[in-house]
Amino acid sequence: MASRTLRPTGISATIDLIGEDLLQNIVTRLPATSFASAACVSRSWNAACGRVLCRPKLSSACSFNPSLQVAVEDVLNKILSEPIRPHFAIASIGPSFDLQEAHQLITKKLGSQVPIITNDPSGIIGRDAFSDEFKEIQWEITEEDDEPDAPLVLSETANRAIMLIVGFLPGMKVRTISLLKQIEEPQIVMIDKFVTDIRDFSSSISGCKSPAAIIMFGDSQAGIKAVVEKMDYALSPETIIVGDSGCQFRHTNSIDGSSRRIIVNEEYVSVAVALVFAVDRNKPPGVGETQFHTVLSSGLSPVGSTYKAASVRDKHRDSMTWLTARREGLRENIDGETILNEVYDELGDRIQFPTFYIGVTKKRKCTIDQEKVGYITSLAFHEVLGDNEEYLFVSDGDIKTGDTFRFYHSDSATALSSTAAVSDHLRSFNQSFHQGSNSTTGSDKPEVFGGLIFTCCGRGESFFGQPNIDSSPFLDTFPGVTLGGTFCGGEIGRGDLTPYVKEPREQESVRCCLHVYSAVYLIMSYTP
Questions:
Q1: Angle at 288 between CA 283 and CA 293, to 5 degrees
Q2: Are residues 131 and 238 in the same domain?
Q3: Within this chain, do residues 354 and 467 fall inside the same structural domain, yes or no?
Q4: Does residue 427 share a domain with residue 406?
Q5: Three-state SS string across 232-269, please?
Q6: Which of 70, 252, 348, 372 is most buried as measured by Cβ atoms within 10 A of its Cβ?
Q7: Helices (H), ranges, 117-174
Q8: Is the whole model's pTM more than 0.85, yes or no?
């Protein structure tokens, strides 16, 4: 029998036989790593993968496995089970896990070139990778925790959890930028450099000094209040800023891919990190617009009169301020004990064991480097720590004689009412998308594709008496859309927040960027 010469039938010949629709159907079902490999096979496969990932995507998962290695594997397997190209990642872990080890495990899997921030918040919010149940989890604490030297009495599995968020944002560039503090005295926090670095990055990518959005994580000792106030002054009002001002963190340096510890070098320590999102002016044709939106649920209620700070003593080393005050329009100074008694009399028995704050209206000079000096007027909250027969004691500094302030107290009824208002706002927001897309059809209509929530560690089930209250406005309005978040030690929220706390008219124009007993929602939308 005469032999025949067979034509080689390699991969390329097989590829050519697959129709575009079938090919796209196949790559849609691939996990992320296989999807990335498929995109490198040929131009037609790359184009098919491009059609699958033509819109932004946010994925999130939680694991409660007591083993850190297994928990990290659980969330990564869940998120990477579908096509996604990681443009950034945020991992939040429980205090019983090692922060540096968790960061290294995630970075090894996602790659050192991906901007990654790993933090240890006061709790996590998200969907279980296995049960798909949505949970708001705060870490377990014991009465012994109130004593600094007392050992923790917790179960072996307590506080062992991880929440991972991975985002893909075509048409945007993302980078991590550090806020540095000098280790040696006078331990200057380099706020101007931090703001300038953010503006320089945004300018290089978009041609605009102000980025689209910033997600921040800061150490509680960083003085984030002053940082966000200066950012509010220096950046366009359109720039959204959200985050947690009271956590430890690690992050991957976007420039050289190194994994940064808290100590950057012998001279500086990193006290905060910003995940900066800038619109790429060179984005490919056909890529739509990703937008960021914020809304706030407040859990504070004002009480009593408006006061003016009289004598002020800044106890910088103790991070507190001693002050006396007078009611507006009167000359007589009032001591701390009398002031608090007036507040308790005003409050009556409407609420038991409230946490008190004073909201101080501050007008301060502000400038960045050698730029022209301007003024900012802001509202800053200071926790009331106590009183004596002479002074009222409050947290933090930067209160000056003549500053006006009012008392606020934590209030679950106000928070529930505010959360309902957020639900109404999100429903109206969603309806406006549909009403505005009458001329579009099919997949071209605007859509919300993801959200993040930063809520106060004082809220949660113990505050409301019910689980998942803070998450419900987003989950009910955007069912099936990814939502992840954390409980914070000071929630950052800057933007058009539509405040849901009743303020006097004179304070309507006063901006507040660092909140207490609130929930800050970041909503991500995409318009083709």
A1: 110
A2: yes
A3: no
A4: no
A5: HHHCCCCCEEEEECCCEEEEECCCCCCEECCECCCCEE
A6: 252
A7: none
A8: yes
Q: What would the two tokens of residue 125 be?
A: 């919010």
Same-domain status, 200 and 63: yes
Residue 392's domain comprises: 300-410
Of the residues 258, 286, 314, which one is the last residue of a structural domain? Answer: 286
Beta strands at 116-120 and 88-93: parallel, antiparallel or unpaired: parallel
Report the CATH number that the domain containing residue 359 is assigned in CATH.
2.40.30
A 10 A CB-CB count for 21 gives: 9
Q: Which residues contact 450 (CB under 8 A, 6 or more apart)?
A: 56, 57, 58, 60, 167, 481, 482, 483, 524
The HSE-up count of residue 250 (CA atoms within 13 Å, CB side) is 20
What is d(CA 109, CA 340) in angstroms, rounded to the nearest whole number? Answer: 54
H-only helix segments in 278-361: 336-347
Closest CA to 513 of 486, 498, 493, 491: 493
Question: pLDDT means per 10 residues in the chain (528 residues)?
Answer: 45 54 67 66 68 84 96 95 91 95 95 94 96 94 54 66 96 94 86 95 96 94 87 94 95 60 67 96 90 94 91 86 87 87 80 82 87 88 90 91 93 93 93 66 78 96 94 96 96 71 52 93 95
Q: Is the same domain home to 253 and 355?
A: no
